[in-house]
Specification:
With about 290 residues, this protein is α/β, with parallel strands linked by helices. The chain contains seven helices and seven strands, in the order βαβαβαβαβαβααβ. A seven-stranded parallel beta sheet has the order 3-2-1-4-5-6-7, with helices on both faces. Helix 2 links the parallel strand 2 and strand 3. Helix 1 runs parallel beside helix 2 and helix 1 packs across helix 7. About 45% of the residues are buried. Bound molecules: nicotinamide-adenine-dinucleotide. Nicotinamide-adenine-dinucleotide binds next to helix 1 and strand 2.
Length: about 290
């Protein structure tokens, strides 16, 4: 059978969305950057798994409303909230509104992220600062607000055996250096040690903190890496599983990682990357 790069090869076929058990029933979740790509799939998956969801977005309210509607399909609540994750005041206000509308927070998925790529010598300070501001400071501000509430409220055994769960959206580039993307790689390397340090600090309070490290996932952020047959073929050379990841791959992982089934997982990055971190250059023996 002939397949072009734009058709799905057998190894690219992804299972249909799981009929989730409502493992997150009664929990309140906030997902940043949730009107596109990975954040959208995570918000919908958490909603289908029984959580009420705040869909954070910074622009394009229509797409945020669409995500909200889909997240509520199985009877949970959701609303969209505009805030720039790099702005302290806006984050404080976003959490305040969540506590008023939903009562508390059980799950934070700090997902919002951007790239502003350039060779080092052409990278402006603005491009450096903005990527660090959104990808790293934005996660810090959201983690801090969530931990304050988790500690104040403590464990509610009928809801979860944890006082709260945080998932930082990292990247394979927390461990793989990335020429031409030093701001992005530095932000994700920073997320790794921020996540581990917070995890160590708050574990005694039964707060779980982990990261998901996606590989190449089919979203707008990396469209240039998969949207032409040539780019697609080059990208598959980096992926032992020989398919690009879908946002739903990350959605399913986020549901499990935030559920009590993952209760003993603390301070870990779960790479969801089709093997991208397995040194694919060595797959034929090196
Ligand atoms: P995307 O561009 O589809 O989504 C990024 C989201 O973040 C969008 O909703 C965007 O509006 C939002 N955002 C950007 N700046 C914001 C701000 N200041 N405040 C609030 N929201 C903001 O890209 P994606 O691939 O879905 O990326 C989501 C996360 O996954 C990012 O942290 C990214 O680094 C990470 N990631 C993606 C891939 C991939 O292959 N797609 C791989 C590794 C890691």
């Amino acid at each position: 059978m002939n397949t072009t790069a734009m058709e799905k090869t057998p190894s690219e076929v992804v299972l249909p969305a799981c009929p989730f058990r409502q493992v997150l029933k009664g929990q309140k979740a906030l997902v940043t950057g949730a009107n596109s790509g990975i954040g959208k799939a995570v918000a919908i998956a958490l909603g289908h798994a029984g959580a009420d969801v705040v869909v954070n977005y910074v622009s394009d309210p229509e797409s945020a409303d669409q995500v909200t509607r889909e997240a509520m399909r199985f009877g949970t609540r959701a609303y969209a909230h505009q805030a720039d994750v790099a702005e302290e005041k806006q984050i404080e206000q976003m959490f305040e509104r969540m506590f008023q509308e939903l009562g508390t927070i059980d799950i934070l998925v700090a997902n919002a992220g951007i790239q502003k790529d350039a060779p080092l010598e052409e990278m402006t300070l603005d491009a450096w600062n903005r990527v660090l501001g959104v990808n790293l400071t934005g996660q810090f501000l959201c983690c801090r607000a969530a931990v304050r509430e988790f500690k104040r409220r403590g464990v509610r055994p009928a809801i979860s055996c944890a006082a709260g769960k945080i998932i930082c959206m990292s990247s394979v580039h927390e461990v793989i250096p990335w020429a031409g993307h030093v701001n992005y790689a530095a932000s994700k390397g920073g997320v790794m040690l921020m996540m581990k340090s917070i995890a160590q600090e708050v574990a005694p309070y039964r707060i779980r903190v982990n990261s998901i490290g996606p590989g190449a996932i089919r979203t707008p952020i990396n469209a240039s890496a998969w949207s032409t047959p040539e780019a697609h073929a080059e990208l598959l050379k980096l992926i032992p599983s020989k398919r690009i990841g879908e946002p739903e791959d990350i959605g399913r992982t986020a549901v499990w990682l935030s559920s009590d089934d993952a209760d003993y997982i603390q301070g870990t990055t779960l790479f969801v990357d089709g093997g991208m971190t397995l040194y694919p250059g060595f797959e034929t023996g090196g």
